[in-house]
Amino acid sequence: MTEEKLKKLLKDFKxxxxxxxxxxxxxxxxxxxxxxxxxxxxxxxxxKGFPEVIFGIGKTKEQILKIAEAMIEANESIMITKIGxxxxxxxxxxxxxxxxxxxxxxxxxxxxxNKKSNKVISVLSGGTADIPFAEExxxxxxxxxxxxxxxxxxxxxxLHRLLSKYEKIKKSNVLIVVAGMDGALPxxxxxxxxxxxxxxxxxxxxxxxxxxxxxxxxxxxxxAVGVTVVNINNGFGxxxxxxxxxxx
Length: 248
Description:
By secondary structure, the protein is of the alpha/beta class. Helices cover 38% and strands 18% of the residues. It folds into 2 domains: 3-109, no CATH class; 120-246, 3-Layer(aba) Sandwich (Rossmann fold), CATH 3.40.50. The chain has a 5-stranded parallel sheet.
């Protein structure tokens, strides 16, 4: 539930527009609604400024639908991550005001948050194969009300590509740097700018890349200061963290 909705609810009760039974029926699901197979945190937006997000992996499409239907009662928008095209179509058919971001594998039911400022979050990818995880970060940040700049395929194998975007990069307030293979890109970027960098290791690579372990270790051992690392393929976590920093 948003702070605005709660204030309106209490104001309506104070002005006798709704009775005690009506307000009790709404507030009984705070702080959470118990549906047996899931406990929905309806208090999340009041605490953190953004509603609980549905993680798509490991849930059936029917479970995701039931959770979304329950959550939309208390929230203006619902976000579902890591959801494939087939399950996404099942959800989209049941909500008119919904959008599927195919590359990011994210569904938005409702509308994006209003932008709070013009400060820019830049999302960089090492290669084209890293773009799905970069898009997850970028779309997450946009849904949370941020201005996002995408700078893709600027990996260290061709450093001139990165340097050609330096003017854009240095104007960023927060940078999300997504890379697989050797995972060196965040260290290079951190050596060029003074802003916080959130590094996202991806499972892109082969052999000794170990499904993302190699870039993860590279990023954790960055010799450049100011690099914070999220888990492998966790574009959502990077986008969320960048949004918090950007709106401080």
